[in-house]
Amino acid sequence: MGPTEKFYGKIQQTAISDEIDRCAEEVRILGFSVLENIIPQKELKTFSDRIDRVYRLQEEELGHDYLAGINELNVARALLAYDDCFLKLIVHETVQKMVQLFLGEYFILNLQNGIISLPKEEHHQSSWHRDLPYQNFVISRPIAVNAFFCIDDFSPETGGTELIPYTHKMETLPSNDFINRHKVILNCPAGSVVIFDSMVLHRAGYNSSDQVRRGVNHIFSVPIMKQQYDFPAMLKGKHSEDPFLNRLLGYDSQVPSSVSEWRKNQYQKIKQRQQE
After folding, report:
1. Which of 228, 235, 253, 274 has CA 20 to 30 A from 109's CA?
2. Contacts by 63-72 with C-beta closer than 8 Å and gap 24+?
3. Residue 194 to residue 185: CA distance in whole angstroms
4. Using an 8 Å Cβ cutoff, are 37 and 191 in contact?
5. Domains assigned to the chain
6. In what order do the strands lie in the sheet with 162-163?
């Protein structure tokens, strides 16, 4: 991973041995990193078509004008609840390894959204924001990590996501001068995934090309955080028989509706541990 740098004094240096280590170090320091060739090129068209299909269904549910009135155009929310193909992105081995490095063994899917950026149109997510909105605090370790899959090419022309490095370590939005000098515009090919601390400030870029640009954003969080969608209710028990998916999709961290239910859940957990 490159030549060894010289240094003196009592300094410890981070050791990296592969792309996972490289990505993790960049996320810790910069707040984000990119891994290329995560989705095979032959599968991109399928994901692209199905994002569009889910969005059409959701627009039909409430209507174009309704979505426009609440700034919800061109966002296909909770994709997994509409199409099982999106489970493949959630459980991708590389992404799961990355998230585990930051959140440990127990984390849940907080959201999964398809972002559609149309040519010559400003997306409503073009304002600077964190994906944990209104939480303007600094913490020593992440409580949520994003995995944003690039289904189409991300570039300055297609409106690649813009990020401000180091802002996961800052409580305030930097000055315009700092932003203009230090912001990064993602330039990565379709099939890549962007891993970033959910507290890093970012925004959608402006798509000046003639092509639609799509991405699928995921937030994985510690289970003390409420899911953006009640995936267990939406999925109606689907995938709950798999222990890994039971935990990942939030079945195992639902809020009990009564003291009795909480105690029954505790009984089942203890019984399961005894059987293991």
Report:
1. 274
2. 71/124, 72/124
3. 12
4. yes
5. 19-229 (2.60.120.620)
6. 184-185, 162-163, 202-203
